[in-house]
Structures are given as structure tokens and as C-alpha cells.
Amino acid sequence: MLVAAPRSDGYNLGFPYSHEGLFVRKDKKKVVGEPMSDEQVAVFLSFRPRDADESVDMYMLTRAYRGLRAHDFARFLDMFQAAGHDVNAIGADGRTMLQILREHAQAEDYVAALEAVGARSTDT
After folding, report:
1. I want to staple 44 with a disulfide (CB 3.0 to 4.6 A). Which of 8, 35, 64, 103 is the partner?
2. Do residues 81 and 117 lie in contact, with contact meaning Cβ atoms separated by under 8 Å?
């Protein structure tokens, strides 16, 4: 295997030796928490499960929960219901999304969003 000799400017084959310089550019700022448009949130309505036996509504709710911040999830739920989907869909394990999220330690805002649109547990 041929290895190029280090250059005086610290580069070898066009890549910096230190990983710090590999992806960081001083002129670019990291964008975190940029607001999502309605179109970006609505994309989650197009997701479908690979398994034909899986509930489409439960799949979309799960993907939205995993991919959206709580306030965007609340917006998604309004779109979800307006499109005729069921927030009380039951998954393969017999539980609703509300029941699942109540077991998650940091999902209080998501639970509140589900309850605000009428979600309920199967045991009530």
C-alpha cells in the first residue's frame, strides 16, 4: 500500500490529519431548531409501513413521534385527524400511541398533545 508523505501544510492526500478540521468550517453556523413548515410536517402523512398487516395510522404516529419536536407533533396531529386518520389506532401489541408514550420518561408534551386531540387508552 502506498502512503503519501505528509505535506508541509499538514495535509496528506487532500485530507487534514486532525479530524477537527475535516468537517468544520468557520464561516458556517450550525442551524438548530429551525421552524418546520406545514409542508415539512405534512410529509409524515405520506409514510406507509412495509408490512401490510401493520396499522397505517399507528405507523404514521410512531414516525411522527420519533421525527418531530413536541410542538410540531401537535401540528401533525391536527393534520392527521383532518386527513381522516385515527389517533386511537391500535398497534400489533394491542396498545394505542397514548399508552405507549405514557411509558416514555420524557414524552409528557407528546402525551398532552395526544390528549388534546381526544386520544385515549384502550383500557378506558
Report:
1. 64
2. yes
Is 67 part of a structural domain of the chain? yes
Whether this prediction's pTM lies above 0.85 is answered by no
Q: Is residue 32 part of a domain?
A: no
29 found inside a domain: no
Name the domain count of the chain: 1
Residue 82 forms part of a structural domain: yes
Over its C-alpha atoms, the chain yields an Rg (Å, rounded) of 22
